[in-house]
Amino acid sequence: MVQAVVGANWGDEGKGKITDMLAENADIIVRFQGGANAGHTIVNNYGKFALHTLPSGVFYDHTTSIIGNGVALNIPILFGEIKSITDKGVPTPKILVSDRAQMVMPYHILFDEYEEERLGKKSFGSTKSGIAPFYSDKYAKIGFQVSELFGEESALREKIERVILSKNILLEHLYHKPLIDVDETLNTLMEYKKMVEPYVCDVSAYLWNAIKEGKNILLEGQLGSLKDPDHGIYPMVTSSSTLAAYGAIGAGIPPYEISKIITVVKAYSSAVGAGAFVSEIFGDEADELRRRGGDGGEFGATTGRPRRMGWFDCVATRYGCRIQGTTDVAFTVLDVLGYLDEIPVCVGYEIDGVVTNDFPTTDKLEKAKPVLKNLPGWKEDIRGIKEYNKLPENCRKYIEFIEEQIGFPITMVSNGPKREDIIIREK
Ligand code: GDP
Question: Which residues, in sequence order, are CB contacts of 263 under 8 Å at separation 6+?
């Protein structure tokens, strides 16, 4: 059985925690898109970890962790991450890397930095991990697949020369930065080859056999629906699809095998980077939610920068769940809201004087004002509660109101950052 764990919003919904929890009963966990630009924070019996490239199931010794072909693979970061977890006593994980995954090149990171610098106030708020230049090159057919490391060195050198020629023209004339050297790039790739060699395999063939053997497979998404390049808030999106459907492509499995799509939805909103964020809040109200949010505050796992904060957005989340093809919603970080007397929820968007429940395209989104409804708070610490019926009444009402608004079943409620802080809802 294949299940996908994906986000409904702007990312940081707590997918890492849900994947880590579900991985207990999984054999294989696959990352299928994105790169080291976003992070999952996981708290378990080994400690607290920020993972960027490794799948969140990496802490169990019965699981195999896979980097699928859809990932932007930054080899030094992957190896740094493996070391950071084994240094803390986690058993060496079983890792497989797709021979069709493409590599983030050192110059992708530089181009990301230079372009953001060039754009100035119009920048995307990139994490400068090289993701946009990486995917641009992939689709311009000038990217480097892991498999190419194992072919003829002369062919690799010839390709590097060809690619670098045009990169250097941009570096010299657009960015006015130092040029890239062919030998240095080739040497770097040869270093990458040594690092990655023990892990490389035909991942889609491996997964095909695993599916036939009835293994439990989790596909772990990065970011959320609203950052999808097609269905999100373009152009303030990421550069690879964040949708469960892409899980089939980025892992190399048949689409019909994905039978459960668990969409992770956070009990309030947060976002990183630029772009429209209709239910955003500011000032003291935002500071307090940011300080109390997540596990130790809402600050980026990759950059440490403060996240933008907002109230729960029913319009965006209904859309985000629909576009994922949600079968189950995991509703997370609910414990954080226990300090509020009343909890505002965004139930509609007012655009040019008309209220809508439909999530619009970006041009209209920029004009949208939130229509808020206040729900009563529960003013209680709900951590440690294990049964749905033991939650305070107003807390259940909050969950049920949101469930009705978004139109997808909330089957899991997360009431704390730890693996065991979860309420499975009997329906
Ligand atoms: P991801 O990228 O979707 O995995 O999300 P992040 O890891 O960036 O952000 C989620 C944050 O919330 C992390 O710090 C988690 O430890 C934390 N978290 C996850 N679920 C819960 C929860 O139910 N309650 C609290 N308080 N924190 C949670």
Answer: 6, 7, 8, 225, 244, 320, 321, 324, 326, 328, 329, 330, 408
Q: Delineate the domains of the chain, giving CATH numbers in brackets.
A: 2-30+214-424 (3.90.170.10), 102-198 (1.10.300.10)
378-407 confidence digits (pLDDT tens): 999 999 999 999 999 999 999 999 999 999
Distance 146 CA to ligand 1 centre (A): 32
**pLDDT tens figures, 102-138:** 999 999 999 999 999 999 988 887 788 899 999 999 9
Beta bridge partners of 332: 266
pLDDT at 99: 98
Atom of ligand 1 nearest to the CA of 336: 26
Q: Which residues line ligand 1 (CB under 6 A)?
A: 7, 11-17, 38-41, 43, 294-295, 301, 332-333, 335-336, 414-417, 421
Average pLDDT, the chain: 94
- In sequence order, the β-bridge partners of residue 28 are 64, 217
Sign, CA dihedral 396-397-403-404, equals positive
Residue 33 Cα to ligand 1 midpoint, Å, equals 20
Is the pLDDT at 302 greater than 70, yes or no? no
Distance separating alpha carbons of residues 414 and 268, to the nearest angstrom: 13
Cα gap 411→332, rounded to integer Å: 11
Pocket test for ligand 1, best of 5, 33, 332 (most atoms within 8 A of CB): 332
pLDDT in tens, 202-217: 999 999 999 999 999 9
pLDDT at 301: 67
Distance from residue 266's CA to the centre of ligand 1 (Å): 9
Burial label for 116, CB within 10 Å (0-12, 13-18, 19+), is middle
d(CA 165, CA 186): 14
Q: Which residues are catalytic?
A: 12, 40
Tell me the whole-structure pTM to 2 decimals.
0.94
Average of per-residue pLDDT across 340-362:
97
Q: Please, what sign has the CA dihedral across residues 11, 16, 22, 27?
A: positive
Q: How far is the CA of 15 from the centre of ligand 1 (A)?
A: 7
